[in-house]
Amino acid sequence: MQSKIIEIKNKAIEEISEVKTKEEIFDLEKKYLGRNSEFNQILKNLKNLSEEEKKEIGKSANLAKKEIEDNLKKYERIISESNFDFQSEKIDITIPGKRKKRGHLNILSQVRNEIEDIFTGMGFEVADGPEVETEHYNFDALNIPKDHPARDEWDTFWIKPEEKLDHMLLRTHTSPVQIRYMEKNEPPFRIISPGKCFRREATDSTHEHTFYQFEALVVGEDVSVANFKYIGEQFFSKFFNKDIKVRLRPSFFPFVEPGFEFDISCLMCSGKGCRACKNNGWLELGGAGMVNQNVFVASGYPRNKYQGFAWGFGLERLAMMKYKISDIRLFHSGDLRFIKQF
Ligand SMILES: [Zn+2]
Q: Is 173 a catalytic residue?
């Protein structure tokens, strides 16, 4: 039996050494190792042998099979290497390269950079402040006392109170930066402050619980509403790349006096009236006004020495108008189909 095994093995190795194609390798594999191979017959018949013989014959048969397998692999590799097709692997250096996909700034960051560029071009400084604020900076110093009904307009995320700490919250607007900046700086100055804000409110196509505002604040001894209107028109004309008119309508916000609703001429019809502006020629941007003297006093300035104007507009709203985006929730959705468009 042992000599039979060796005989089969030697024959196999000899035949393998003469193969020319992968098909031949495949056939030999079937012939010597397949289900109907002589080796398999031997292994099948082991059950008729004594324990001693079973062990011995089984071992030699398996060793022989292993040797055949190794030879098959070896010749398969040799055939593969000799068939290597240099022609098809040739590199054509005239074919244009594949463009690698690179990440890019989110549309909100792009708009924010654009806004900062326009304002710094007009001599403004960019100021920053914390997103977790105290009740003092977010409300009290902005002339919104605790018992004032206007405070309900800002649905607030409160931070769980800790001992000895002022009530903390996620800022509901960028206006606290006004106070922080005025505490450390003397007028005259011009600043903008873009940043993230939070409000505890239901989301829909125009409302998000997390959004960006950019605050503008100009303070000096003789800053007027006319300056305000002019800066607004300059900024929006540059931002939208067309002539924009600004309209101010009387309104109330605790931190300004007088307060205005700030409108710009319709981007589609330039004021003639169309569907986008519901035929009135104007688009609402948000609240603005001349800084309330109480806010100056809360920041450490003497009453009635300075005048200034301020606004806090939504960054998403501007991006939506400029790029015709219909739903504010897309900005933070992480949806690549949306993000890749900009
Ligand atoms: Zn219009």
A: yes
CATH 3.30.930.10 fits 108-339, yes or no: yes
Whole-prediction pTM: 0.69
Ligand 1 centroid to Cα of residue 94, in Å, is 51
Q: What is the pLDDT confidence band of residue 163, given thresholds at 50, 70 and 90? A: low
Residue 248 CA, ligand 1 centroid: distance in Å: 17
CA 268 to ligand 1 centroid distance, Å: 5
pLDDT tens track for 10-40:
988 898 888 888 888 889 888 888 888 888 8
Contacts of residue 112, defined as CB under 8 A and 6 or more positions apart, other chains included, come to 194, 212, 214, 315
- Is the confidence at residue 86, as pLDDT, over 70? no
Catalytic annotation present for 310: yes
Q: Give the residue extent of every domain in the chain.
A: 2-82, 108-339
The pLDDT score that the predictor gives to residue 77 is 87
Establish whether 99 is a catalytic residue: no
Q: Is 199 a catalytic residue?
A: yes
Which among 112, 173, 180, 190 is annotated as catalytic? 173
